[in-house]
Amino acid sequence: MRTLLIAAAAVIAVAGGMLVGALAASGGSSPSSASEQQRQRYADLWEIDLLEKNFHKATTRKNIDLMMSLYAPNATFTFAGTIAEGKKAIRQFWLTKSKAFLPSNRWISETPAYKVRITVNGDNGTLYFECHYLDAKTSKMEAVTAAEADVARINGRWLITNLAGASATLTP
Fold first, then answer.
1. Is 155 exposed, middle or buried (0-12, 13-18, 19+ CB in 10 A)?
2. Which of 12-26, 97-111, 158-172 has the highest mean pLDDT?
């Protein structure tokens, strides 16, 4: 009888362990999944923020190739009444109508970090940032504008799909 009780207890312990293990495995995936989702969200926010940083690098250095690498092939761009559709038209805007790209202007482009706003929802998001253009020689503020952009993950890379010039927010 004693052997039967020990065997029954062993079966119950093994079966209980399997049940606990199965529950832990199914329940354990949620925190890991939530943690992975959070990591992905932070990675997306970081990559979207790189669009803003590279935008300013491109305007400061007058690097049209870097600027164009930020846009999706079918992106749209609106600034001061000008609408450009597609990368070719956007490129023309930067090269012919943007004061930041004028060879005579030696402007440094920047954004106060606290004025950048980013949202992300799956493969889409938004990006708002200001453009403070300082003259490199005089340190005088030459222009202040803002950009409101729709962004999307396309082929694994975040790109601007629509960018509209906007008035800069005067509050922090």
1. exposed
2. 97-111
Of the listed ranges 18-22, 44-48, 125-129, 151-155, the least confidently predicted one is: 18-22
User: What are 9-24's pLDDT values in tens digits?
Assistant: 443 343 444 333 443 4
Q: How many structural domains compose the chain?
A: 1
Any domain includes 172: no
The tokens of 4 are what?
A: 């039967």
Reported pTM: 0.78
Asked, for residue 53, whether it belongs to a domain, the answer is: yes
Residue 162 lies in a domain: yes
CATH code of 33's domain: 3.10.450.50
**Residue holding tokens 């609106």?**
78
Residue 123 lies in a domain: yes
Q: Strand 157-166 vs strand 124-135: parallel, antiparallel, or unpaired?
A: unpaired
